[in-house]
Amino acid sequence: MLKLAARMGRAKPSAIMAVAEKAKKLKAEGRDIVSFSIGVPNFLPGEHVYAAVREALDKDSGQYGSNRGADALLDAYLKHLEEAGLTGYTRKNIATGIGAKHVLYNLAEALLDPGDIIAFSVPYWTTYVDIADIVGAQARLLPCPAEQNYKLTPAQLDAALPGTKVFLFNNPSNPTGMVYTKEEIAALADVLAKHPDVWIICDDIYNRMVFDGLGYHNFVNARPELRDRVIHVDSISKTYGMPGWRVGFIAAPEPVAQAMVTMNSNHITNIPEMVTAAAVAALTGPQDVPTQKNAEFQAKRDQVLAVMNAIPGVKCPRPQGAFYVFPDISCAFGKSHNGVAIGNDVDFCNALLQAKGVACVPGSAFGEPKGLRISYTCPTAQLADGLQRFAEFFAELA
Ligand SMILES: Cc1ncc(COP(=O)(O)O)c(C=O)c1O
Fold this sequence. Notes:
Helix content is 42%, strand content 14%. The chain is of the alpha/beta class. The chain folds into 2 domains: 6-44 and 289-395, Aspartate Aminotransferase, domain 1 (Alpha-Beta Complex); 47-284, Type I PLP-dependent aspartate aminotransferase-like (Major domain) (Aspartate Aminotransferase, domain 2, 3-Layer(aba) Sandwich), CATH 3.40.640. α3 packs antiparallel against α11, α4 (71-83) runs parallel beside α11 and α12 (288-310) runs parallel beside α14. The chain is globular, with a radius of gyration of 21 Å. Bound molecules: pyridoxal-5'-phosphate. Residues 39, 99-101, 125, 170, 174, 203, 205, 235, 237, 243, 248 line the site of pyridoxal-5'-phosphate.
């Protein structure tokens, strides 16, 4: 029997996709399903994006493009960075890829040798563990339970960094929606400054999706000397409602950006011209769609939280960004629903889907089996319906 490479034994298909598939199957069987599972923004970009693509189509060069990204795209991203207060970067600091996921994968390849340690907090975005596994790195998991608002403390970070090659930070967070305040970022940045041998990847793809006037803050602004080892990761997927267009970015020290360019030259060659035009238009054109969506998501966050807070026993830190809520539902463990025993988060999500047609992702997919993730981007009426069913399910537990 011919064998696949050893790394494929470590590669796992996405747990989130598995839930989404189950929900899709039930829907196809005629069940009335409300899906809170996939982290998709559920809106389309403004008309100017489509107009830019039509124009690009008419001017198609038909040629290979730049491995780094077209100049127009690099400049558009530089402007986007400046709007977030990140100045002083040039085209040489930027590289692009097929979405943030591709960029993160390439970064893992570029920065981590087998056995190297990559540290990140739990709950984490599922792909972090999978990418670490594929490249043979060791994940150092830093537990951040609901009791500490799912946030990493400076002391925890300080203890975790010796021996760590890469610290991966995600703010705002998927799956919790938590956002670090300016003071919290400054305190973590002070710790990072004490550990000069650690690369810092900031997966900030939800940086435009912040609520309550909290603002987006980052390590480089807090401690400018960190710029030499901070890598910002960004994407048009969530902010602009363009997950299928597949454009991601890094802003990084030049050698890291150059490493991405080298990888691209061997993997993807370039981002297609039409997609480049769409991304440039999204980044530089009118920002009313993302602005309006952010306000809408904040209202939906309130809608979800109101329901979670009204369920006795459920603990739910208040998210301030992205479009996720991550309640701790462990009070349900040991109970049953219509005779179906609920021993853990997976049982809970399966029973909820079967009984009420509501699909959520079990927290164990994100390393935190006491919780589950609700992605709340579906239409408001559907959200209300799904939340009501969720509350009913809890009320029916015995
Ligand atoms: C934290 C985080 N990083 C990266 C990604 C990947 O985004 P992209 O669609 O740009 O690959 C996601 C997508 O869900 C995410 O939630």
